[in-house]
What does this fold into?
Amino acid sequence: MIGHFNNILCVITSVTDQQALVEQALHVAESHQASLTLHLALESLPPNASLVMASFAYIDSQQSLKEEAQERLSAMVATLKATEKPATVVTVGKPYLDTIQQVMTARHDLVIGQARSGISGFLFGADAMHLLRKCPCPVWLIHQETARNYKAVMAAVDVNYHFTREENQVRRQLNEAVMASAAEVALLENARLHIVHVYDAAPRHMMRDGLMRSHQQQMDNALAELKKERSEELATLVSSLKQKFDEKSLGYLQPEVHLADGHPAEGLCRMAESLQADVVVMGTVARVGVPGLLMGNTAEDVLSNLDCAVLALKPEGFESIVPKENN
It folds into this structure.
């Protein structure tokens, strides 16, 4: 089932202050009956740091740093109340590269990491955006204060299919994956599910700015037709949930569908705020065919302005291109 995870990687940057994140990862892993690996991703020591640190009788090498970190991580895992203790990995280097390489080596299908206030504070700061752009599997960035307390889950979908047949197929698959994953999270957290599409009514903006001339009736007809088209596509998308969930689950979910016109990025952020979404599930790459393609502008703008947890998905066929060396 799309949205179900089997091999989860939880990335932490400390063994002392990310307990809520680890507990949420355990919660998700147990609910999905998935294996869990805790990955302590540390930054490399700066040049000549060993000489400075040795003079203060601290850690004298990258290797001893890694060994000490592994001991502390193992001690932390021993205290966890879990049916099955997670595996552990410690890396010292560039955290986002080490995370992606771990994902590719061990074939993880979900990365869970720490979110703070705003995208600039996610996970390792700027490294979070690298993960959202380049990590080949979904990335779930969790807020410390809302871990395991979700009340509203928002699936942001784009049902604009005015593209080539190949790209439309990718978009449909990604929309279904976003919606199914959002439904999984809503069921997992006993939360409300909202499915949101914001479409850009370009003719209205162009006329308002004097770029186009048209009769009011013609514009109204065009906008009504566009709204009807998107509403029908949304209904078709929502109906696809019947293929992925049983009647009991669907009876609980009862997703609320929201259709609005406006600038997509601004509209999605406003909807997330008005719905008081605890997590937004969305696709971050609009097209395939170019390995390592950067996120689309809408996804980038949305992620830069959200202040809630994010579960970001890539389309099938996405290839992550990262340097082999991380130094």
